[in-house]
Each structure stands twice: as structure tokens, then as C-alpha cells.
Amino acid sequence: MCESSVNYCECNPCFNGGSCQSGVESYYCHCPFGVFGKHCELNSYGFEELSYMEFPSLDPNNNYIYVKFSTIKSHALLLYNYDNQTGDRAEFLALEIAEERLRFSYNLGSGTYKLTTMKKVSDGHFHTVIARRAGMAASLTVDSCTENQEPGYCTVSNVAVSDDWEGKVNYERATSFSSKKPQCG
């Protein structure tokens, strides 16, 4: 029997200047800054320093926040939502980068709670974040980790997370595709 290696990058499956790395059974596209996706087919939108987007107030009881971002900043505010009160009773919700790590903070009027992952995210690569809150219970997940990762590296929670917290995100609804999967000839 002869063994021959297959070059999965031969048909150049990566878009938008992505570079292809052939593997044993498949390939991986390394995407340049500003694009992401299996084939570097999705565009991201960046912001100048000190710029922001404004959205309506979040639900004060339950939140499911899904964000994909890339930064080299060791301190940054990704999301901030607040009520109109001031002082210790002021309610807020924040998703931020502090000392290169992701932090989810909130106050529902009885003190500030903070969840921080150990994984550093200020590396210029895209990271996927899911922050969930139901009343005082909250969890924060950054990227997908293997089961052998130490606790708190990618996921932190102030409660025992059950199957009720599992949620599926339909990526096609969250972003729009600019191209179809390439076909090799």
C-alpha cells in the first residue's frame, strides 16, 4: 500500500487574504485582522478608540450576551448597561477586559459581583464570549476549552451550571455570510 499526503490547501479555500494550513484530515484558515470564519468569509467591524455603539436597555432579570472580538488592549470596556440610579444601589452590567482577562460584572442593587476568566484575551486573535445572567446567577465563557483545562480558565460561574444554561447560537442569524464554501475541482 502506498501512502500519499493530501494537500487540502491546493484549491485555496481561504478568502480575504487568509492563509491555509493543511492538516491530516482537513485544513485550517488563518485569517488576517478584520475577518473570521472557517474560510475567512465573515467581516468584523472595528471601532476607533473612545467610540461606542448605543443599544436599548438590557432586560433587568435575564441576559444572554454573545460577542466575538479581537484586541491587543490589556484594559477595555466591551459592553456597559446601567439604570438611572446613582450610588451603591445603582444597577449595572459590564463586560470588560481587565489585565488581559475577560470580566463580567453586575450589580442588582445589593453589591457588585465580578466573574473573571484566567485565559488572556489581549492577543490580537478573535475570541468568542458568552455571558449569561438569570437574576443573581451568572456565568462567563470565553472560547471553547477542552475538558482537561483547569477550572476558571475559560468558564467561570457563581452557581453550579446545569443543562438549563446550555444554549445554541445560530451563527447564520448572528452574522451574514459574504461567500459560500469553496469547492475544490
TrEMBL record:
Q: Which GO terms describe its cellular component?
A: basement membrane; membrane
Give me the disulphide-bonded residues: 31-40
Q: Which UniProt keywords apply?
A: Disulfide bond, EGF-like domain, Glycoprotein, Repeat, Signal
Give the signal peptide, or none.
none
Q: Which InterPro entries match?
A: ConA-like_dom_sf, EGF, EGF-like_Ca-bd_dom, Laminin_G, Neurexin-related_CASP
A single GO molecular function, which one?
calcium ion binding
Q: Which residues form the EGF-like domain?
A: 5-41
Domain Laminin G, by residue range, is 42-185
Top-rank taxon of the source lineage equals: Eukaryota
Does the keyword Repeat belong to this entry? yes
Q: What is this protein called?
A: Protocadherin Fat 4-like
Encoding gene, per UniProt annotation: LOC115940374
